[in-house]
Amino acid sequence: MHSYGFLSTHPPTRCGLATFNSALAAQLTAGDPRSGIVRVTDRGDDLRAGPGVVHTWSTRTQAGWRDAAAALNAFDVAVVQHEYGIYPGADGEDVLPLLRRLTVPSIVVLHTVLRRPSARQKSLLEQIVTAAGAVVTMTDTARDRLLVGYTVRPDKVTVIPHGAADHVRVPADRRARPHLLTWGLLGPGKGIEWSLRALARLQDLEPTPTYTVAGRTHPKVIEHQGEAYRAGLHRLGAQLGIAHAVDYQDVYHDQAGLGRLIRSADVVVLPYDSREQVTSGVLIEAVAAGVPVVATAFPHAVELLTGGPGLVVPHQDPAALADAIRRILTEPGMGARLAGRIRPLAADLRWPAVAARYAALAERLVTARRPAVSAVPA
Question: What pTM was computed for the model?
Answer without folding.
Answer: 0.87
